Amino acid sequence: MALPEGDAPNAFDAAASGTAAPPAAELDSQLGSIDWSVLPKGSVRLGLTVPSGVLAADAMGDPGCPPVVLVPGVMGSKEDFSLLMPLLAAQGYYVLAYDLAGQYESAAAGPENLTPPRDHYDYDLFVEDLYAVLQTLREPAHVLGYSFAGVIAELGLLRYPELYRTLTLMSAPPEPGLAFRSVSILGRFAPLVSGPASADLIVWGVKRNFARVPASRMDLVRRRFQVTRRQSIRDIITLMRHVPDVRAQLAEQALPKLVAVGEHDVWPNRVHAGFARAIKARLAVYRGGHSPCETAPNQLARDLLALYADGAPPAVG
Description:
Elements: H1 11-17, H2 24-29, E1 44-50, E2 53-60, E3 67-71, H3 84-89, E4 94-98, H4 123-135, E5 141-146, H5 148-159, E6 164-170, H6 186-189, H7 195-207, H8 215-227, H9 230-239, H10 247-252, E7 257-262, H11 269-279, E8 282-286, H12 292-295, H13 297-310
Helix pairs in contact: 4-5, 7-9
């Protein structure tokens, strides 16, 4: 079923109109083709000044509402959340998504802009950029980190816990150290291949659409590769060979946490489940692969809203 831009079906529209809402899984099964290059209807483009430069961002909802910050992974962008953002904004949240430094429309942001300048993208760069974004908000945020950005969200929480209300790790690396070691096929060769070579191999596979994503999605993928800095991809893949082991520290954080993954993610579900137990997080598994925000947005939104309710500040009076 093809849908007009910005008009994907969702349970929250049905609830607002007073009609019975179909189950979220049913709504997700009815998702049609969309133009991924078009940001959600009613969204606002922003430029966020951070230590590495200016990040391209997209926002939806009333800025006075509780904030949600969505951070995409390597080779991704804010558009990855185009189906999820309207669902959360419709429920009274201010939703902000941005492109990581070096990626897509944030391609000009990089380590050369830091004081003092640095040669490579590193964990500190991405964490301090996230901190600058969170500092622009009126109150602590519900933070979701997707894939590589899950590591950034974890490190940000440990460094700046006062700026977080909840933490969601979507398809994030579930193992410390060499993150790729349990990935099928690639895992067995990961110790033998350098970070830059691994990055080039991954880019090669993504460009050839081995994941078999729809043509409308590949259009955005190709557009992003035209501007995303190859250095940023190589540096990030190298960082994913050295994922910090912060499981014990995350477990000590009392805020609500969610690990959200597809049943056919690049990392096995059993490894995600072990990670969720280790950090004392809930685990949600959806049909699909690495991108629940694209293939199961209604179910993901349902579970995020439940998490957010538990992370809401106590009522006054």
